[in-house]
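quick one if you have a minute, typing this from the bus. below you get a single protein, a line of residues and a line of whole numbers that encode the local backbone shape. could you go over both lines and see whether the tokens make sense for that sequence. anything you notice is useful, everything is just below.
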Amino acid sequence: MYFYSNLSTFLFIVLDTGSTLVLSSALGSYLVSLVGLAILLIFLNFSLNVEFGSQWLYIIILSLVGDLAGISMGIFIASVFRVSEQAKTGINIAISMFFSVLSGMMGVTLKYVIDKNIPIINLINPNNLITDGFYALYYYNTFNRYIRDICCLGVFIIVCLFISFMALRREQYDYI
């Protein structure tokens, strides 16, 4: 009972009016994004005959968590950077492209160099975690790497949202 009361107090403190507005907008964005993701997967499978194998559930879970990671990164950028909307869009695109390069989406050599020399970068890069999760489903017989990728994405989501909510609280108190 003590843990529950502390948790509810913490949630009340963290989720103030500004954060609740952002959270409800994020939920709407997430739902719209999920519809687009479902349409994409259906189109790839039935129209283009892309074979995903027998692990549909794991593909869907990784897609759901990856989608949430992208939205939480967008919330993080929007709440931390105090610039115009166009600048926030540019920052978001630049960070996404930088993460894509590091994850090997522009050429796989850099991904392996980073994995060998600085592996922590690929453990905090959401683009790498998503692509690595798909590789893990395709190439490995165990789910250890896949589960690690999902857990790291979960930590990324929590950290982004926590920092975002703290930044929104700071902004609210600056106006008082």
Summary: The chain has eight helices and no strands.
